[in-house]
Each structure stands twice: as C-alpha cells, then as structure tokens.
Amino acid sequence: MKKEIHITLDIEKLPEGYYLATSRDVQGLVAQAKTFEKTVEIAEDIARKLLSAQRGKVQQQERITYPMVILA
Questions:
Q1: Which domain of life is it from (predicted)?
Q2: CA nearest neighbour of 36 among 27, 24, 44, 28
Q3: Domain locations in the chain?
C-alpha cells in the first residue's frame, strides 16, 4: 500500500532564466528546467525515486510546526 508523503520544494528562478528546485525534506533532490511546471514535474519524479531508494534506510522524521510570537 502506497502512503502519501508531503514534501516542500524550494524553487528559485535563476538569472539565466531557468528554475531550480531543491528540498530540505528529500536529501539529494535537485531539479532544473526552463519552465516552472517542468521543474516541478522533474522534481516529483526525482523525489519519488529518491524516497523509493531510501525506503527502509531512513526513519521517517516527524516535523512539528509551532507558531511563535516574539516581542522585541
């Protein structure tokens, strides 16, 4: 049974006009293409392959988002 995994992509537009995607959630994920859409498509394929290769080798990390307000 496949399980749903949520990851966050960090995508930036490079000065040369290409888009570059990386992720803190999937070690080794780097994707680059001329369009935003193609970059996301490539990143999804790479993420799927990397996660499949890492299955069983890496414990699933739990991430907690905690909103914090600091008065300065």
A1: Bacteria
A2: 44
A3: 1-72
Length of the chain: 72
pTM: 0.72
* CA–CA distance, 12 with 55 (Å, rounded to integer): 28
Do the beta carbons of residue 45 and residue 52 sit within 8 Å? no
Reading the block at residue 29, the tokens are 């994920």
What is the rounded distance in angstroms from the CA atom of residue 68 to the CA atom of residue 63? 15
Q: What is the pLDDT along the chain (72 residues), one digit of tens a residue?
A: 667 888 889 999 999 999 999 998 888 999 999 999 999 999 999 998 998 887 755 455 566 566 666 666
CATH class held by domain 1-72: alpha beta
H/E run at residue 42: helix 36-54
- Here the tokens at position 67 are 């909103």
